[in-house]
Amino acid sequence: MSKILIVGGSKGIGSAILQLASQDHECINMSRTAPSVVSANVEHLTVDVLEDELPDLEDISTIIYCPGSITLKPVGSLKEKDFLSDYNINVIGAFKVIKKYLSIIKKQENPSILLFSTVAVGQGMPFHSSIAAAKAGVEALSKSLAAELAPTVRVNCIAPSIVDTSLASGILRSDKSRESVAAKHPLKKILTPIEIAEMAYFLISNKASGMTGQVIGVDAGLSTLKI
Ligand SMILES: NC(=O)c1ccc[n+]([C@@H]2O[C@H](COP(=O)([O-])OP(=O)(O)OC[C@H]3O[C@@H](n4cnc5c(N)ncnc54)[C@H](OP(=O)(O)O)[C@@H]3O)[C@@H](O)[C@H]2O)c1
């Protein structure tokens, strides 16, 4: 693996991936604010992927796109702009980054792309219409690109349940809500960013050289178990 581009390594899951990956690899982080991870292996570029022109890069072999949203509203409160905003940050942002750097990663060894969905695509969940629709787009994008770019570039996707990041702070706002979220999961826990980062790091590594077009649930059992 050569250089890894992490879009959204300043916070949450992306920050945990940056922490893990920068131990052994050069990483470029792209986000609107700087990451807290400090390492000689980390270069930060201040970029808003929706607003800014993406900078030219060299030698990257891997793209990890982390920006996303959690819009939870009853359908009566949802506006068209909610759908457009969720689609923009989850699908268009990822498309823009992939389109810009695809020709670069194709030239490297074991190139791969990793995107993020949500457990709410596979399971109907109340108040998730907008975000689930956008993330369904992310899953479709992952699989379509995996087919189109095989055998050269592997494309995979992780579909987490609630992860303890600032993005989920509204859902995990009190001890009571944290207990209630944990209780809904077969593993009776709230996922940590590092648990997602470990799967991300595996999927972009040579250890996952036989995997492409997969949507992997890291969801404390929520998508598949009823206990
Ligand atoms: N947390 C959960 O419970 C959960 C559950 C299911 C799925 N997911 C998905 O997992 C992914 C990561 O989630 P997370 O909880 O780690 O999110 P997060 O804590 O909000 O982190 C998102 C990262 O993306 C960056 N970002 C956001 N908008 C950007 C933009 N316009 N341009 C550049 N960078 C931007 C943020 O940095 P700046 O603010 O510095 O720009 C930040 O580093 C998302 O796709 C999310 O939908 C999360």
Model description:
The protein is an alpha/beta fold and 227 residues long. The chain contains five helices and seven strands, in the order E-H-E-E-E-H-E-H-E-H-H-E. Helices cover 35% and strands 16% of the residues. Strands 3-2-1-4-5-6-7 form a seven-stranded parallel sheet, sandwiched between helices. Strand 5, helix 3 and strand 6 form a beta-alpha-beta unit.
List keywords for this structure.
227 residues, alpha/beta, Rossmann fold, seven-stranded parallel beta sheet, 5 helices, 35% helix, globular, binds NADP nicotinamide-adenine-dinucleotide phosphate
Task: Annotate the secondary structure layout.
Blueprint lengths: L2 E5 L4 H10 L5 E5 L10 E5 L13 E6 L14 H26 L6 E5 L12 H21 L4 E7 L14 H10 L8 H12 L10 E4 L9
Parallel strand pairs: 1-2, 1-4, 2-3, 4-5, 5-6, 6-7
Helix pairs in contact: 1-5, 2-3
The protein binds NADP nicotinamide-adenine-dinucleotide phosphate.
State the assembly state of the protein chains. single chain
Strand ordering within the main sheet: 3-2-1-4-5-6-7
Using the coordinates above, name the CATH class: Alpha Beta
Helical coverage, percent range: 25-40%
- Bound ions, cofactors and other small molecules, one mention each: NADP nicotinamide-adenine-dinucleotide phosphate
